[in-house]
Amino acid sequence: MSQTSGRQTPKIFCIANQKGGVGKTTTAINLSAALAQHNQKVLLIDLDPQGNATMGSGIDKATLQHNIYDVLISQATLSEATVYSEAGQYDVLPSNRELSGAEIDLVGMKDREKRLSLAISESQRQYDYVLIDCPPALSLLTLNGFSAANGVIIPMQCEYFALEGLSDLVNTIKRVHRNLNPKLNLIGLLRVMFDSRVTLQQQVSDQLDAHFKEKVFSTIIPRNVRLAEAPSHGMPGVNYDKASRGAKAYLNFAQELIDRVKTASV
Ligand code: ATP
Ligand code: MG
User: What global pTM score does this model have?
Assistant: First the structure.
């Protein structure tokens, strides 16, 4: 069933966690592809100079005509820089190493935290969902993501140290909500790379449930090798091996998110 008629303001969600390698990009790519399979029109914004979300969507970051950096410094419009991911069936605002210069270039600019928000407001309305893959830092780039978004999804591994950084991240979201973007909310915590056989993971998972309650998504993404293999084929895992446990989990997660957005004041 297509949701395209009656499309209103898109849901703009950052996938963020300042910890490295926790599954942000894997979540951004697979959630984009899974939402597309649920007939949602999706834009995936790669806000990380590593360009992993770009490559994992099957787009060569080395041969881009334009990239997100051009958009942030007003050298290209969103629609000029956007490319279509055949492998994922969604649009991508791609990134590469050039974006690493943005941190320095943006500092002297007016509304430096709002560049992304200003740049995408022009044509964001054609999408149901805009997902922003953030870099592993609470940097000016991530602030641009938070200023443009109305929600944050935090993927996390259920490990002891995962909880440590979480309060910094939640406090940053609160500060941005107060000072820069009153629309920003924590949408939820997503447990990823989960292995229920590991007692500590189960314990941390229970702690998350107890502390964050309904902010913890009930879908859990398992550790699944097919999800890890997919990027080297330039494909989202949900399309690379539809029958895999990882693919099914991300499809369920997309459905849970759609339901949550419908019922909650997101
Ligand atoms: P960075 O902070 O560098 O941007 P990240 O948070 O975006 O990293 P990913 O790149 O998504 O993290 O994942 C880190 C590694 O873990 C990758 O090699 C990825 O393929 C693998 N990975 C992510 N999720 C899963 C999973 N559910 N099962 C197995 N491997 C996974
Ligand atoms: Mg990443």
Answer: 0.95
